[in-house]
Amino acid sequence: MFSKIRNYFAGARQEFKHIQWPTAKATQRLTLVVIGLSLVVAVYLGAFDFLFTTILQRILGIV
């Protein structure tokens, strides 16, 4: 049983050697892309929420 666990971690260690980690500059660039897209989606969804809330309030006669 312990040999299977040892073999598993040895194999995992070998696989980690094959990983190509991104550079710091690439990580920063991709992080900014994710933040930017998140903000765009948030504004888009917020606008639709505001629009549908306004329409629903007018239909129901609230405020």
UniProtKB/TrEMBL annotation:
Pfam families: SecE
Location(s), subcellular: Cell membrane; Membrane
Membrane topology: Single-pass membrane protein
Entry keyword annotation includes Nucleus: no
Keywords: Cell membrane, Membrane, Protein transport, Translocation, Transmembrane, Transmembrane helix, Transport
GO cellular component: plasma membrane
Domain of life: Bacteria
GO biological process: intracellular protein transmembrane transport; protein secretion; protein targeting; protein transport by the Sec complex
GO molecular function, one term: protein transmembrane transporter activity
Main localisation: membrane
Transmembrane segments: 30-52
Record's function text: Essential subunit of the Sec protein translocation channel SecYEG. Clamps together the 2 halves of SecY. May contact the channel plug during translocation.
Family classification: Belongs to the SecE/SEC61-gamma family.
Complexes and interactors: Component of the Sec protein translocase complex. Heterotrimer consisting of SecY, SecE and SecG subunits. The heterotrimers can form oligomers, although 1 heterotrimer is thought to be able to translocate proteins. Interacts with the ribosome. Interacts with SecDF, and other proteins may be involved. Interacts with SecA.
NCBIfam families linked: secE_bact (TIGR00964)
Record's protein name: Protein translocase subunit SecE
Source organism of the structure: Candidatus Harrisonbacteria bacterium CG10_big_fil_rev_8_21_14_0_10_44_23
Gene it is expressed from: secE
